[in-house]
From TrEMBL, chains A, B, C, D, E, F:
GO molecular function: peroxiredoxin activity
Residues annotated as transmembrane: none
UniProt name for this protein: Carboxymuconolactone decarboxylase family protein
InterPro entries from the UniProt entry: AhpD-like, AhpD_core, CMD-like
Pfam family, any one: CMD
Domain Carboxymuconolactone decarboxylase-like: 43-123
């Protein structure tokens, strides 16, 4: 259970409703996931978060699928179960194949391992990396 | 300072030396960074780690640059300073532009923020994400 | 499921029972939550933890509600779901309004974002902060 | 060293310069700390981050000092050394006394301990916390 | 739910089947837990992970039970619920008594607390620890 | 630099001095490390922390060296550099050999890797682990 009630469409104030409308229009689906329904109690945080997400996750020098996989990787390291499920689903919707997911998984596992080894060893940063 | 001495080339046992030779040949440079010099005390761990890294980070369904950026993202979330420096340097060497680094940064910041929000709100996973 | 059985009141040894009595007297309720029932197998850890908690979370230079919100913030960053639920409930019981919860949420989200950005950028500490 | 060069005032593009001007005006000091100088390469991220920070950390249902202490608590749990230094300095500037800092410290230590215990025990959330 | 389907014995390709056979032979039980069933989609990652685990967790200068308790401690700090359950079960199977589990718990709690205090205080490393 | 001044022996109040005396007597050395000097501003936290540490880390069902290695493992996962240095030094003083340190390292690396894999895969806990 969430620490706040999840708002249904009928519970939204006008500012939150406008954000939900934009989420639906941008994504081309009527489905609005629970994260936004939980944030909807704070229209200001909802607006700021959706506004930034739309901008940050859109196409740029990095393509949207690459961005989703980076998002999954951060969410795994932070142990955010909801975020792992939602961004894995988004990555799949944007074209992540089983082979790509397998390689993403392998990089995540490898990075966690060497992060642990490096931290245990307290390895000093090479001068070559600081140029 | 590291929690173990960093081995110079003259201190390596034959098994560790063979790994260092392969690192140099694979990367096309004489430079071997401190992580491997710290691991060199445990030739078995050194071999296994380098062997896996070479395989995991090579080209596949995901290109090596994408993999480096995912590595950076995990390392940031795990707070591994050495890993951030070394894999940012690797990503640059593999073609990460300033614009790409800026977008990587923006995704990392965004993911951390929503990870925190979702966790604070304890949002339940939507059924739609579990199909 | 917990990794140890949760003890009911009938299962307690005298030392654990004394702690439960003090929890009930201090809080003015018969309800003893699962955390203490799981710790009750280790009366020494139970005593030490409750003793410290009672002292640390009481009124001082910081009021108990502020302390609960700080507790929630730490628990979010550490991803402790149980702790988020229990200390959010405590904060509400001590007067946290929906508006205060919304601002707490916004600070938590913001702090996670800039923690991620600062770590990715490896920003050196300004001398001005070290005085 | 940072993973990007820190920009001096002479290196700023107009958009970044406008943010620096606002930071100076808002804080009433000429000092602009390294975090903003590192972010200045990405004027869009700089603008969004400063804009949100100014809004989130200002007075509301929670006072600015309480918000700074919550910020410190998150930064400790995330292990962000720069953030701990900068927000501890901000909290002091906003009136945090040595006694308050000591209590903040005690709550942070306590929360980390019980987060660890609860996670090790995998305590199930009491129904009473989910109302 | 997992982010990949869990493979039953009938779904395995020959390489994954060989790993499952070795897991069963090594552990002397027909039971193969969900972690391996989730990894089985990536036979290469499955092989590498099982191969390393078998080697790393076997007897050496540290006995297998000590290794399991260290594994639990890392899993708690990383907030990996599945890992806490599976390695607590393994530790019990290898002889961890209730008294040992209680002391493991106390060390984990203590370490989390002082990790938080030290990080909040940003204590500089004593020269004496760097020899 | 620490976020509080480190107290020298001459700066201690009587309560803190008594703790320092006990640290010296217990450890059989005049050396008191920086952690205690930073905590000394809060005699109550200092007393409680030292009192618990002395009790928790002493001999019991687990020997002191095993406890130190568990402490190191938690500190690595939490990224506490000071704690890694101090408890690695303690473990060495209590008899950790290079071979033992190497195996500790290998378990830490392995646990981090599988923690990451399990979390990315969101593996559900087997019923067999919940008995």
């Amino acid at each position: 259970m969430a620490t706040v009630p999840l708002l249904s469409d009928d519970d939204l104030d006008p500012r939150a409703k406008a954000v939900f409308d934009d989420i639906r229009a941008t994504r081309g689906t009527d489905f609005v996931n629970n994260f936004w329904r939980a944030l909807a109690h704070q229209p200001e945080v909802l607006e700021a978060t959706w506004g930034r997400l739309k901008q940050v996750m859109g196409p740029g020098a990095l393509d949207p699928l690459t961005k989703e996989m980076i998002y999954v990787a951060v969410s795994v390291a932070n142990g955010c179960s909801y975020c792992i499920h939602s961004h894995t689903a988004s990555a799949r919707a944007k074209g992540m194949t089983a082979q790509m997911q397998g390689e993403l998984l392998a990089v995540i596992g490898m990075a966690h391992e060497t992060n642990g080894l490096v931290t245990a060893l307290q390895v000093p940063v090479d001068e070559e990396f600081q140029a």
